[in-house]
Design a protein that fits this description.
- This protein is mainly alpha-helical.
- It has one domain.
- The protein has 6 helices and no strands.
Length: about 160
Amino acid sequence: MFEKSAADRYLAAVKVLTKAEAAHRKNLDLLYQAMDAKQAHQVTPLRRDCERSERALQDALQAAHDAHRAYWTQRRDAIRDELDRAALVIAEFDAFALLAGDRAPHPALRYLQGRALEGRTAANLLDQDVLATHGVPQEAPDSALLEDERGAWRP
């Protein structure tokens, strides 16, 4: 009946990612403790647990990435109609400029380039972090644990 928004799907995916990281950290800690205590009979089953939790963490990270990308894709697509209208306005501007005697090849483009020089650019919007709303950050999710400890459970 009520479908979750893209932002809600992202936030849910991040919760799953956080839980997967915690589970993997716990499994790694148990493995390291067993290895330090020289409890060889526990090491093999704990390695299997770590393998499973690492795979679950990788899957959760991929799901969070997918949800993050879907959110920003939806935001981009939501303004596509405005971009279509802007394309028409640009063509009209060029036509009016031509009628007014402006023989430059692309007067609207020249105007837009001037605006870019004033700082109206995508890079500035990203630097100012003004696009991040609904609790979805601009940066894609990551996992330092996965990056630092990938495969650490292997013999």
